[in-house]
Amino acid sequence: MKKVDELLNNFNAKIDYDGLIDRFMNEPTTKKFILDHDLTRDQIIKSAHIFLTYIEEYKTCNDCHSLEDCKLQTKGFTPHLTYHNNRIQIEYENCRYNQNRSANNISAMYIPKRIFEASLEDMDLIGESRKLIHAYMHKFLKNDLKENFMKGMYISGKYGSGKTYVLAALANELAKQGKKIIFAYYPDLVRELKSSIGNGDLEEKIRQLKVIEILFLDDIGGEYFSKFIRDEVLGSILQHRLLDNKPTFFSSNFPIQELVNVIKESNTQQETVSAFRIIQRIKRMTEEFILKDMPRIS
Question: Distance between CA atoms of 244 and 178, rounded to whole angstroms?
Fold first, then answer.
């Protein structure tokens, strides 16, 4: 079988896209995916590298006979194709040989496969802020939420400071305890919620975010601004979780006080009040931490 880079990274040869499409239509799983989502030729060509990677990994999984024989980078997880907001992606779930079912407790929305690899033991503890975050995470893990509610965390820091990794490591540990979790990349979640308006399933998606045991919202403030999403969706979700003592975790490029300027459309009094309502709910739900040091590169 030709590797993906042999087919797509050979700039000296013209890529036979029609041949690639024929190949995708001859594979039962990719053919079904293409037909189910009524993909156009341009969509297939644009995501050719994703289809090739999927086919290669899918066949590797089918030829595998035990967890010890797993040859994928994400050991113990099998690929499947997803289609969100006109974007084709590969997501991963436990394979048939993976006996550690903790990942099944995490519903990862628009999050790359590294969420399944994040580990509390591998967390970089350089700098005082990371040590404080690490201590709070251990305290949260030891706490009995049924007996004693404990706030989530709001972690801000520069791009690349490791905010997502920190939250993913905690989510994995909580999943091992049997906690049910939604871990969502917030900008893509917003796009998904917007596309659900008028489809009849928006209320159900909001309900799931309200009632899930523990919610992680990654990169809040990085989304395309929408007053409707801010006030009617996010505000409703946060209010419900606040009143129901359901822990919620956030990451953002902005400290909480700066976030208010990101989530308001203008400087009018009404907009400022609406934005501050969200900020006050987040403050009541979380302990704030600012990652001031960049992680070491191993």
Answer: 19
Distance CA 122, CA 271 (A): 42
Q: Residue length, the chain?
A: 298
pTM here? Answer: 0.67
H or E stretch covering 287: strand 286-291
Say whether 13 sits in a helix, a strand or coil: coil
| Exposed/middle/buried for residue 177 (C-beta within 10 Å: 0-12, 13-18, 19+) | exposed
Q: From CA 148, how far away is CA 144, in angstroms rounded?
A: 6
Encode the chain (298 residues) as per-residue pLDDT tens digits: 445 545 445 433 567 888 999 999 999 999 999 999 999 999 999 999 999 999 999 999 989 988 778 888 777 778 889 988 788 988 877 777 765 556 678 888 887 766 777 888 778 788 888 899 999 999 999 998 888 899 999 999 988 888 999 999 999 999 888 899 999 999 999 988 888 887 778 899 999 999 999 999 999 998 877 899 999 999 999 999 999 999 999 999 999 999 999 998 888 999 999 999 999 999 999 999 999 876 654 4
Those residues whose C-beta lies under 8 Å from the C-beta of residue 280, and which sit 6 or more positions away, are none
Domains belonging to the chain, first-starting first, are: 4-99 (no CATH), 128-291 (3.40.50.300)
Q: Which two tokens stand for residue 183?
A: 């871990």
Cα 144 from Cα 285, distance rounded (Å)? 17
Q: Do residues 246 and 207 make contact, with C-beta atoms less than 8 angstroms apart? A: no
**Cα–Cα dist 254/257, whole Å:** 8
d(CA 261, CA 275): 8
